[in-house]
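Colleagues,

Please find the record for the two-part complex below.
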Amino acid sequence: MIELLERADPAAVVEVDKERLRAKVDQAIGLTPRLARSPASRKRPLLAALASAAAVTAVVAVVIALRPEPQPDVFQSVIPAPNRLGLLPGVEQVVGLETGGVKGMAIDGDTIWVLESLHHKLNRIGAADGAIEASYEIDAYAEGVVVGGGYLWLSSYDHEGEVLRFDPETGQVDRTIALGGAPGWSAWFGDSLWINNEQGDLFRITTAGAITSMGTGEVKGQGLGYLWVNDPATELISSIGPDGARGEIVIPTHPGLETMSGSGVRLLIEAAGKLWLMDGDYPWGTNLSVFDPDTGELRTFGAVTFGLHSMIEFEGRVWLTSHTDHLLIRIDPETGEVRRYPMPGKPGGLVASGGSLWVALHHPGALLRIDPDAGLLEAGDIVADDWNRFPHRLLCTGGGDLEGPTIILEPYDWIDYGSWSVVQAQLLNQGHVVCSNGYVDGEASPEQRAAALNQALIEAGISGPFVVVANGDGVHTIRLFAEARDDVVGVVLVDPMAVGFGDFLEEQTGDHPPFADLDPATSAALDFGTVPLVVVGQDPEKVFLSPQFIAGFGPETARVVNDYWQDGLAFYRGLSTNVSSRVAAGTGMHMVIWDQPGLVVEEVLNVISRGD
Amino acid sequence: MPSLSTPPRDIDSGHKFDSLFADHYLAVYRYCLRRLGPADSEDAAAEVFAVAWRRLEQVPTGEPVRPWLLAVAYRVVGNHYRGRRRRVRLSARLGSEREQVVEPEASDPEIRLLRRALDSLRSADRELLRLSAWDGLSNAEIAAVIGVKQNAVDQRLFRARARLRGRFDQLILESSGVNARKAAT
């Protein structure tokens, strides 16, 4: 099949007039002003080199699909449910989801519906107590869920796009309606489901499942008593009234507001008598615009943060989640005040019920019930560096008057900086300044990350001394960072990943999770000297020596992989002459920061005291 | 030598860009051709190299350069689609927004069916399969082009191939049924 596909390439033997193409290139260059060089003069020589390396290969951060990825099977069985997310201020309840990968959420009275798309599962959760009342297998890849007419309406990508009608009484999909293209946004409006496909065909589907073409347009949301869709002819968003009349109100546009799909307004909601439009596509969605129906004017609210995902109105305020920045965001529509709260994972869906917010986390798979008035941990300034499609974030929060090193929390590649928020909250209580480092999804080498971290600190005006704390493969970044600076006074490595572990794991198991890694020669040249170091290991009995791993790969592979990991820990312990280590008993792969945040805090304070 | 019309930054930059163009113009052009057809592909390819010129300091050297260029092309082509879609919608509504690429008719009936099967897939699946089979990229390079992690490409490509195989088999079956009916009549 692959060979046949290769032969089917219509361009395989097509040539192009090289000179003519070059002439076009030259013309394009001549007409296009060149970009100014980004300033790099403040970098130290090594970091300048690292930065250069980062710029050279930083081509990958644009993530075009919001679809999350499942955990590799290797670790599927050994990741325990997080049990300490409730330590984060404001989190009232944690509902552990079996798999994560939440895409769609909907609220129906006192029931929350949560769609775990990757695992074809629809969960029915009681909003009163957070209990998972039922879990239904859905034989389709569905992302959207809308409540209406006594049914749930799931938008599925299967069979070139279709809508599934799910009857909550029977727990069955009892009707399938073809869309002729991948589904777009949908909304229940009046007595019908309104949905568009990827070609921009707009449909109205009745409760009985009858589908009617409504011309063209993309559903953007509801508000002010109308459904709002864009008009491909004018590229403006206009209203559809309860009677189906279209175009009674047309939202004007402003420069830079893209209303079409792909990079345009993703959704809109009503808040405080106005429409709030979320502009931009993942991961670049940053801006909000506000339409005032009284004046007919649309104004730019401005950039909030990257990766905006969900948006709802709740108790008079606009609430959003940022998938890439791991934030829950609150906006006061009257004053324009923006507050940002770190979430301990990738937040996706967001609904409100009974005075609480419910935020779905992709990793770890959990649903958080949040009391918005309970003093959530607030994010400090965000240093954003949109470095050549490799956006980088440094989120720093001051914690009182205590003089001491600034603590930098470096994430594990997959998990990113929100994962540290429970630890961060506890360190802030100790009076420290804590910076949680982060990156928008995408491959980034440790060299790139170390350079980005250094650059962000410089631009934020944050000087040392630093205590650096790394989780998992974040160890590689931290080692490079520490080598390039002379103001790192303490290091804590949590679950540090052995150099070459990804390749070794692939040899042993055939599976190569996307771990960051360090070149062995580079690794050999790095050590912490006399800087105090703590190495925290995971519990082998919960990871490679766990019954699940042994059952999956056999006792010999389990032993060999565990030996490699333990050798890595021993190597890390040898990197400082002032070292201590401990095992986080009972905690598995990279879960220490969630399972035992107190242990991490204890060791951070330990390393600080040893540096005094 | 850099072209006279190329605003020189310095001689090294000019040489670097000339080499970049000479080594990769065909791959970039073909990438654009496969997705946009002959009408827009030259302009799109020129746009890709214009971006490369502006970001010359960021262009990698060695093996990673082709994925870097195709990552730019991926976005340039995306912009062309959006622009084209608007033009199409403004002039006359088409039944489908599929890429209007005129492909030479293949003489091999299997290849014709395979192209039909490919056309019937979701655009994301088509793109992965084309990047792999036609642009010759490894999964890691595809991940760099479309901006996801390699394990995501591994999984999606696996599924896309399975879907392609399913569609292809279905078309083969349908085709053989038609042929059988023709033979019977």
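Residues 31-82 of chain A have pLDDT under 50 and may be disordered.

Comments are welcome before we finalize the supplementary table.
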